[in-house]
Structures are given as structure tokens and as C-alpha cells.
Prior knowledge:
Mean pLDDT: 88
Low-confidence stretches: none
Oligomer: single chain
Radius of gyration: 19 Å
Structural class: alpha+beta
Amino acid sequence: MESVTSHNVNDLPPAERQTLETIVGRHLQPDERVSIRVYGSKVEPDEALREAARENLERTFARIDEYGKEHGIIPEEADAAVEEAIEHIRPRNP
Length: 94
């Protein structure tokens, strides 16, 4: 079963707003709106869909590896770039 809720940030009590800011990893602006969707955990993709997803990931990783080799990017540089991007999007809370 799925449930959905949506709220204006400005209408949230301070404690709820702070909790959501912790979850999304940034301060929410008063003019923003937060939507939350909850899915049931009993639905699993069938084996064919899982296999297709795995194969797609393997192709993607192979293309990434090839690109890195062609452009002289070592794995440590790539990992550092990914970490920097993640930190930029979702900074850790002290």
C-alpha cells in the first residue's frame, strides 16, 4: 500500500521541519513544498526485471571504466570526484 503527503515548509512545526532538513541534508526554504511517498516493502521486481537492471548497471560501469582509461582518470580521482559531488548535494551534519 502506498501513502502520500505534501506540506508547505512554512506550515511545518519547527521540530518537523528540522527533522526533514536532516533527512534531505539541507535547509528548507519557506516557499518550498515537501512531498513524502511511502511504499510497501513487500513488492519486489520479478527476476527478469532484476536481471535487466543488473545487465544495464554492468554496461554502465564498463562505459565508465572505458571513459576513465581513455582520459587517464585513475579510480582514486573518480572516487574523490563522486565524494565531492555527494558532499555538495548532501552535506554531512556536524
